[in-house]
Amino acid sequence: MREGIHLNDRTVNVLENYDFEVIRTQKSRNAFLCETNKGWFILKEYKGPQFRLELLEKLLLTAAQNGFGAAERLERTREGELFCTDSEQSRCIVKTWPGGRECSLKDGQECREAIHQLARLHRALCAPGLAQEYGLRAAGLAEEYEKRNRELRKVRRFLRDKGQKSAFEIFLQQSFDPFLEEACRVTEEVKAYGSLLDASACEEAGSFCHGDYQHHNLMCGGGIFPVNFEKYALDSQMRDLYQFLRKLLEKTGWSVPLARGLLDVYNRENRLSAADWLQLYYRFSYPEKFWKIVNYYYNSGKAWIPGRHMEKLDRLLAQKTAKTAFLEQTFSV
Questions:
Q1: Three-class SS of residue 208?
Q2: Which helix (H) or strand (E) holds 181?
Q3: How far is CA 166 from the centre of its chain?
Q4: pLDDT at 302 over 70
């Protein structure tokens, strides 16, 4: 390591386990970016189980073998390990880093390229052998929504029993029942479709998704490069497409032309089936944003509730009509 680099002791100890020479580093979002004699890498803490790292390495290799060369790669230590521990016994991993900046949701061309790359990535992330090797089970959409509905009911009971309430808590309680009813209705409709929307097709095809496909995990620099695959899942790949589009559409007032254009980009590269369209429709129909607001509120300190909670709930209610129009005009079920 070159003299004059300012790193804390934990970082120095970790990087010394790898077969490269560090030129300089810089702090990033919960990580360190490292310029080395072998290119750029990123060092970050890893809190998941070891088998998921082993599977991640194989999954990224599979994507590369299937023609998707824009994915990151895990770097092994000199001893051939996928992770090492720092002085506080925290597990750390090192991955290749493409450089560049985050994808901008305000740039239409970058959003189209992000969707195009996602379609290519999904074709490359079909690995039935890996799913069988690790005995993975995919959670179905109805199962996921049932769990969320239980969480919503728990918070509704908490609010009803709570004595003195803040202005936000009063507003949240007043808004609760319509959203919970909508969540339950969507869940029952998903269950009614049975095998068309359950997890069996994902397990049989071995279809993996990125798990957190959003602009913070898309680097731009001579193309779009997805990073941070640690939340990968054996699941409908529509989970990724929905997640990216939802974040974008919330910021653009649920623009139907924008949604149709981006869905067309994906469809041209990776044909959407009838089941895919149903997956998207019900993922958009479920009040996920409300669940997120409720979940964040309930699991954070309630002595002081940030004003942005009220702002998010206000915005959600204000966009309800636009979202309904988006669903009606974009999908035919």
A1: strand
A2: helix 167-192
A3: 32
A4: no
Residue 26 backbone dihedrals phi, psi, to 5 degrees: -150, 145
Q: Report strand pairing: 101-102 vs 218-220.
A: antiparallel
CA-to-CA separations, 21 to 9, 87, 225, in angstroms, rounded: 16, 20, 24
Q: Which among 61, 62, 30 is positioned nearest to 46, based on CA atoms? A: 30
Confidence of residue 46 (pLDDT cuts 50, 70, 90): very high
Sequential DSSP letters for 251-295: HTT--HHHHHHHHHHHHHHSPPPHHHHHHHHHHHHS-HHHHHHHH
- Say what the pTM is: 0.92
**Rounded Cα distance, 266 and 108, in Å:** 14
Angle at the Cα of 104 from the Cα atoms of 103 and 109, rounded to 5 degrees: 90
First CA to last CA across the chain, in angstroms?
Answer: 60
Nearest by Cα to 119 from 242, 221, 268: 268
